[in-house]
Each structure stands twice: as C-alpha cells, then as structure tokens.
Amino acid sequence: MSDDIIVEAKDGEAAAKPKGSKKKLMIIIGAAVLVLGGGGGGAAFFLMGSDKAAAKTAEGEHADAEAEAEPEAEGEGEGEKGKDGKSAAYLDVPPLVVNLRSADGAARFLKVHFVLVPGKASSVEKLQGKLPLLIDAYQPFLRELRPEDLNGSGAVYRVKEELLVRATQTLGPDAVKDVLIQDLVQQ
User: Fold this and answer.
1) What's the start-to-end Cα distance of the chain, in Å?
2) Is residue 181 within 8 Å of residue 156, measured between CB atoms?
3) Which residues pair with 115 in a beta bridge?
4) Do 92 and 171 form a contact (C-beta atoms < 8 A)?
5) What mean pLDDT, rounded, does the chain reach?
6) Distances (CA, A) of 134 to 67, 98, 122
7) Checking CA distances to 104, which of 40, 49, 66, 95 falls within 20 to 30 Å?
C-alpha cells in the first residue's frame, strides 16, 4: 500500500508542474505579444509620421515652385493656351535620329525627342525661328555619344544638361530655361 501512495504522490507532483509551466508559458507569450505589438505600433507611428511630414514638405515646396513659375509664364505671354487658359510656353522639337559612334563599327542609333522651355529673353516664336541653329549645335554632340555613354540612370541627366549648355552657347543666356526630354531610345 505504501507503494501506491508514493506513486500517487509522484503523479500529483507531475500534475502540479504542468499547471505552473502553463501559467509561466502564458505569461511569457503575453509579454512577447505586448513587446512585439508595442514595437510594431511604435515603428508604424514613427514611419507614418515621417512620411506625412515629408509629404507636407514636398507639397509645400511644390506649391512654392508653382507660385514662382506662374509669374514667369505670364511674363512670357506667348505660346499655346493650356487646358486651364494659362500660357503653355513649350516648343516641341521634332525627334532627332542620329547614328552613335561604336567601337566595333556596328550600326547603332539614338532617337531623342525633347521639348524646350523658353527663358525670360525668348519666346516660342523666337525659338522656332532659331531651331535650325540649335539642331545644328546638337548634332555633333549627339553623334559623338557612344552606347556606353547612355548606360545608367544618370545618362538622361547628362544629356539634358549638355543640351541646355549648348542651347545657352548658341542662343545666348536666358533664351532656353530648360530642356525636357520626352524620349531617349537607343537601338
């Protein structure tokens, strides 16, 4: 009989341990959920908060840029009328197709389509009259480009800046405010 009592006592201790273990396990799981939930919530708060601030800052800068651009567009006064009745002073240059200089002698071509934005000292009509001079200034630069010059995301920026520099050299300062590249296709 004494053996039965000892066995039962061992079973009772074994039964008591899982109850304590379950409580500890539940407490650990609850604490982990709170920590992870709090960390996730805090991360979301900080990430969402910075996006809104950046969006407001970008919106403010965009609004400032538009406010600065409106008087310039009104001062130019010449050009096509946009959808909202404001002056849209852009000169759409016909696409230029030039052959590229390649080391292996293979035929490679570049098609460039861009728009010119007249500066303070010019208008669309004045640029239209001087377009042959401008295209003549662009041709040597475009023909000297190599296919590897057009690799990467910075290629469009470099081509745009070089076109703007050549427009300024050819037509004078403040004749062209910006060059907007619409297409840059290499074959």
Assistant:
1) 97
2) yes
3) 92, 180
4) no
5) 74
6) 30, 15, 14
7) 95
Q: How far are the Cα atoms of 15, 16, 35, 137, 170 from residue 26, in angstroms, in the given order?
A: 17, 16, 14, 77, 78
∠137-138-144 over CA atoms, to 5°?
Answer: 115
What is the rounded CA–CA span in Å between residue 84 and residue 145? 40
Task: Give CA angle at 129 (168, 92), nearest 5°.
Answer: 75
Those residues whose C-beta lies under 8 Å from the C-beta of residue 108, and which sit 6 or more positions away, are: 99, 100, 102, 147, 186, 187
Q: Which of helix, strand or coil describes residue 101?
A: coil
The closest of 63, 92, 90 to 76, measured between CA atoms, is 90
The rounded distance, in Å, linking the Cα atoms of 113 and 95 is 4
How confident is the model at residue 77, as a pLDDT? 39
Polymer length of the chain: 187
As to burial, measured by CB atoms within 10 angstroms (0-12 exposed, 13-18 middle, 19+ buried), residue 181 is middle
Compute the chain's Rg from CA coordinates. Answer: 35
pLDDT tens per residue, range 23-79: 888 888 888 888 888 777 777 666 776 544 544 544 554 444 444 444 444 443 344
Residue type, 138: Y
